[in-house]
């Protein structure tokens, strides 16, 4: 049986991440960065596209697994007739180059272990040349090389374009494998001690998790979400990727398969808000600084996403040699949404910078000048149709959420000036602009007949992003139009107890997103409904929905982007920052008031 998305756990070193299946196989790993070519791409293809499996000989999926509490160190265990075996997986903090450490340990009895390593560089396409050197198996292909060794040494042999070993461990015995990536033109990498790497990883992650200020219900999954957000952070620059994968499908067998290994301003600014709320000021500051570097320049050149180091060009291409997860083709790398106009991003960025200032993050030179330039740009552009936060590919529209977020941008600029008289800006002009946007949204984005805001001006369609209207302060939660919108979205976009982001089928005209219909419920939107229910005084319903959503995390606390309520499985890229951000936010909203801070 093919693995499901929720069968995977993630390990990583804050520069890249690997997905480990319940069968002990690493099926996804891009080296050396999140957005590099994958050397294990079985996730999106088959065994010929690369994987590394360590498990008891002849065993299937594990008996149990879990992270060591408050860490990103994964233990996978099998009970077999011979005894119990544990494999501990981690990627230690790197000094220069990345290592994958896999420690095999006999828990009881005497178990025969099998390791099968098939490296396929450049997204599962290139079989490397192999050689032996200083007790290592060295694989080389183009710019990439990997060095495999074990401590103590176990025999490896080559067969069937892979590297294999078989050995036995008795109770208390350990064998550690280390796979190190290295630029192929350089001499052999520095060796790390895998056992020390294990203890320092456990110590460092526990220290980090201990800084979380949330102490309310569901603390375990909140901390797991924060660890996941940290794992999706590219440490050298502070950039945060939207997910560790590309092309996990939003519909099984469908074409909605996108590359999320980049930094979206939207997803990342929301991460910053959550990090600040949970007490992680340093990380929030690092991200804020990444943002200021990335968007430096002219506001008309602002992009909605960047590479982890701020790269601007992310051309979208298809990888025809990968069949796709469960046959969901095409597999894409790069993302052409990079060139879209998404007006909401200005609101999210201004909101985050406002929040950063409020939270006491030290202001940076030019930050206010940049904010003023963004507002000047928006002043000219906010009337334009755009692709909106869902990055539609069916043409630009006058999306109501985009205009609401344009209002947010101007509102935060006004409030900053009001609270910081030492800053300069056009207070009266911005107040007038804020009022103008508000009036237009209420006149054109609201359907009085149905008492709901609509997806775009003049449309009868709904959009779950409008659940954010009370949260961003556009209207108070008790405004009848807000209550009507929450009810309409819950009724029309609700599915199996969760929420879809919009209708992917439009009987009245061309489909808004320009793609074949059908996708799962959108998890972030489902959390937003819980927030909106809570804010509009329906706390019991909000808690019930949060509990249902908390029940969707996989056995190690992870969420993809979407959920197929009918099939009962997760969909979309994994683990996804957007979903985990929303989970933490809702926990803080529903339970955090007394406990946090
Ligand atoms: O489903 C269509 C779009 O899907 C992706 O965008 C989604 O993911 C982004 C990252 O988490 C998020 O910011 C955005 O709001 C989501 O709609 C994809 O990147 C797009 O290219 C695609 O059109």
Q: Classify the beta-strand content into a percent band.
A: 15-25%
Number of strands: 28
Number of domains: 2
The CATH top-level class label of the largest domain: Mainly Alpha
Q: What is the terminal-to-terminal distance?
A: 46 Å
Question: What is the CATH fold-level name of the largest domain?
Answer: Glycosyltransferase
Broad structural category: alpha+beta
Computed CA radius of gyration, to the nearest angstrom: 25 Å
CATH architecture of the largest domain: Alpha/alpha barrel
Mean pLDDT equals: 95
Segments where pLDDT lies below 50 for 5+ residues? none
Q: Any idea what the shape is?
A: globular
**Major beta-sheet overview:** 15 strands, antiparallel
Ligand inventory? ligand LLGJG24Q
In helices, the fraction of residues equals 25-40%
Q: What is the number of helical segments per DSSP (H or I, 4+ residues)?
A: 13
């Amino acid at each position: 049986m093919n693995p499901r998305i929720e069968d995977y756990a993630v390990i990583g070193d804050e520069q890249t991440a690997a997905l480990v299946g319940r069968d002990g196989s690493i099926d996804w790993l891009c080296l050396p960065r999140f957005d590099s070519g994958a050397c294990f791409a079985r996730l999106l293809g088959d065994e010929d596209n690369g994987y590394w499996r360590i498990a008891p000989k002849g065993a299937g999926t594990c008996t149990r697994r879990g992270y060591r509490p408050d860490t990103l160190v994964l233990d996978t265990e099998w009970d077999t007739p011979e005894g119990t075996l544990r494999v501990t997986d981690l990627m230690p903090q790197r000094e220069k180059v990345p290592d994958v450490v896999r420690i095999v340990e006999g828990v009881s009895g005497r178990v025969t272990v099998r390791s099968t390593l098939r490296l396929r560089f450049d997204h599962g396409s290139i079989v490397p040349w192999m050689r032996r050197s200083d007790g290592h198996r060295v694989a080389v292909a183009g710019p990439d090389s990997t060095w495999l060794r074990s401590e103590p040494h176990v025999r490896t042999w080559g067969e069937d374009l892979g590297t294999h070993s078989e050995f036995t461990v008795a109770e208390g015995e350990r064998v550690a494998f280390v796979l190190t990536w290295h630029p192929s033109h350089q001499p052999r990498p520095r060796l790390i001690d895998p056992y020390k790497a294990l203890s320092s990883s456990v110590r460092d992650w526990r220290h980090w998790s201990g800084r979380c200020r949330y102490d309310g219900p569901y603390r375990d999954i909140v901390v797991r979400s924060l660890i996941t957000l940290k794992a999706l952070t590219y440490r050298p620059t502070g950039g945060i990727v939207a997910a560790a994968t590309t092309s996990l499908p939003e519909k099984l067998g469908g074409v909605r398969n996108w590359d999320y290994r980049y930094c979206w301003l939207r997803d990342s600014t929301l991460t910053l808000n959550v990090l600040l709320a949970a007490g992680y000021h340093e990380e929030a500051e690092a991200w804020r600084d990444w943002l200021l570097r990335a968007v430096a320049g002219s506001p008309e050149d602002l992009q909605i996403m960047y590479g982890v180091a701020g790269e601007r060009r992310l051309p979208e291409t298809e990888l025809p040699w990968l069949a796709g997860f469960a046959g969901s083709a095409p597999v894409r790398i790069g993302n052409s949404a990079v060139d879209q106009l998404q007006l909401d991003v200005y609101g999210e960025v201004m909101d985050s910078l406002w929040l950063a200032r409020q939270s006491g993050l030290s202001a940076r030179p030019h930050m206010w000048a940049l904010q003023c330039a963004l507002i000047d740009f928006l002043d000219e552009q906010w009337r334009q149709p755009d692709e909106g936060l869902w990055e539609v590919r069916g043409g630009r529209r006058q999306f109501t959420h985009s205009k609401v977020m344009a209002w947010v941008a101007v509102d935060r600029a006004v409030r900053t000036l009001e609270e910081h008289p030492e800053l300069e800006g056009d207070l009266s002009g911005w107040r007038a602009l804020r009022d103008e946007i508000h009036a237009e949204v209420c006149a054109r984005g609201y359907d009085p007949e149905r008492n709901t805001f609509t997806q775009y001006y003049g449309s009868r369609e709904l959009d779950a992003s409008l659940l954010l209207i009370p949260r961003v302060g556009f209207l108070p939660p008790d405004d009848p139009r807000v209550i009507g919108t929450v009810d309409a979205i819950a009724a029309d976009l609700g599915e199996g107890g969760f929420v879809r982001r919009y209708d992917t089928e439009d009987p009245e005209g061309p489909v808004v997103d320009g793609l074949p219909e059908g996708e799962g419920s959108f998890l972030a939107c489902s959390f937003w409904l819980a927030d909106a229910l809570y804010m509009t005084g329906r706390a019991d319903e909000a808690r019930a929905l949060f509990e249902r959503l908390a029940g969707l995390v996989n056995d190690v606390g992870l969420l993809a982007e979407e959920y197929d309520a009918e099939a009962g499985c997760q969909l979309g890229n994994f683990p996804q920052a957007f979903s985990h951000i929303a989970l933490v936010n809702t926990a803080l909203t529903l339970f955090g008031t007394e406990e946090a801070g």
